[in-house]
Amino acid sequence: MSRPTILPAYILATLPLVMALLATAVSIGTGDEVVNFFRQYRQAHPALTACMQVITDFGNPLLYLVYGAIFFRARKRGDRHDMRFVAVYIVVQLLVSFLAVRILKIGFGMPRPGTEGPAIPFSFKGVYNSFPSGHTTEIVGAVVPLAWRCKALLPTLALGIYMGIVGYSRIYLGMHHITDVFAGLLLGSVAAWIIHRLADRTPS
Question: CB-based contacts of 58: which residues, under 8 Å, 6+ apart?
């Protein structure tokens, strides 16, 4: 199966989220000013806030259906490559997006937006599990491998926009800082690369 070059596809898929983070950092800031801005914005735009809540809640689960469809289609056709792709995706996401992220959250103990005081490393309290963003790690780890499978520009860009909205919703809703989401982007990129490498490896 022909695929676009890895780097351009990755840049295109991650560009919407990266640009949104940069635009926010430049125009608003990176600290409490962002928290205060979006707190007021949420109060002034309840309909948009409700939409963003739906996106943040169901953005990742929707992709479970996509990967499930890929698996059952592959199973029906006897396509071992695609079945392997989905199996690797599940294992890597469990190890990176859930286990590794959880360990990092507890280890760093960074306070979430609106939580006063310093970091409390090794805290199991949710308000001190801000860094990194698990939602962002998961969505990047799911979308980028799909983007690498695309053959066209528009589907890759559409996936990137979708990923960007899900990731940015965490900032909009006051659940994460910009640095949390950016760290999630990096971790998710690592997960995506591992998925790509292992799924494409020819079994011996």
Answer: none
Check: CB of residue 179 under 8 Å from CB of residue 119: no
What residue ranges do the domains of the chain occupy? 6-200
Please, what CATH class does the domain formed by 6-200 belong to?
mainly alpha
Count of CB atoms situated within 10 Å of the CB of 87: 14
0.90 exceeded by pTM: yes
Place of tokens 């919407």: 16
Sign of CA dihedral 84, 90, 93, 99: negative
Nearest CA-CA partner of 196 in 27, 39, 21, 4: 4
91 close to 141: Cβ distance less than 8 angstroms: no
| pLDDT tens profile 47-100 | 999 999 999 999 999 999 999 999 999 999 999 999 999 999 999 999 999 999
CA distance 135 to 183: 11
Torsion of CA 49, 187, 143, 2, to 10 degrees: 160
Burial bucket for residue 49 (CB in 10 Å: 0-12, 13-18, 19+): middle
CB-based contact 196:145 (threshold 8 Å): yes
